Amino acid sequence: MVATGLALTLAGCNKKPETAAGDELVIKIGSVSPLTGPQAHLGKDNENGARLAVEELNAKGLSIAGKKARIELIAEDDAADPKTATIVAQRLIDAHVAGVIGHLNSGTSIPASKLYSDAGIVQISPSATAVKYTAQGFKTAFRVMTNDEQQGRVLGQYAAKLGKRVAIIDDRTAYGQGLADEVEKAAKAAGAEIVAREYTSDKATDFTAILTAIKGKQPDVIFFGGMDPQAAPMVRQMKRLGITAQFLGGDGMQTAEFLQLAGADAEGVIASSPGLPLSLMPGGKAFEEKFTAKYGKIQNYAPYAYDAVMVMVEAMRRANSTDPKQYLAELAKINYDGVTGNIQFDQKGDLASGVVTLYQVKGGKWEPLETVRSGGK
Fold it and tell me: Which residue range or ranges hold the Leucine-binding protein domain (predicted)?
């Protein structure tokens, strides 16, 4: 981190989003995600997705405004911590990056987005789903996946189908609480009763007290708004306590890591994820082959990080500029067919249309149950 900080401080002396290396432009793009801590597997997944896009663009040969260009990806670690996220964001701003792919979490993307907006730097998150992220009115904030308003509606309606007594737990992060709020609203509208609403943290590993209290309410469904490091021990502790309620969650637990951490107790768990299943994405099969050959198993968001880079660079090409002030207008009106599907943004920077897929663990694998398409908001 010290070495990285020194390098970026020196880079900050340059006041342009690209530097000259002979006759070649070097375009600096930031990538921010948790690269240490319990969510590092997801963070590295995002970074590798972005890195694959950068490597392909550089290998094919990139030209901006008639000049040969090469992209340099500056990967930073925000440790899924909001305060660290703002420090990292300022570091990238001082380095005069042309844009930022990130952050991974809603809780880090939201505070960082204010800094990027003030600096006029484009931010595209591959994975932040909280409604608030794009509801702040920052013209520089975009995302390439469905938001929690859409995902929460699907989950809440599905929870009500599974049973009329629903208990909800969230991890108090912007993502977990925001998704849980949307689930509660949709489940109630669909006729379900919320028999318990409990809270934990994104650092906790012992949920015995919460689960014991919920067990007495006899829920049909327990929904958890949070990430896989908490979801996996939670489902294991549910089984030990003899709780038979259906365990339901969002994209934070719909990961390969959850399967490994939860083991046999993962069987039957249901979770959603924005977007199509990888096998049904327009470029999913080819992406999976390239990514797994180079980086191994895809956790969840790598295809979105890949598309975020591609759509950002495409906007630069159309604007003939790497200056965010110039290419921002092209990004806002982009119509781009990516690995994950067609990418167009609404006035807030959200996808103009969204897709949510529900999965269930069967035989130790996440198997698609159904895909729900939703129109623009």
Answer: 27-365
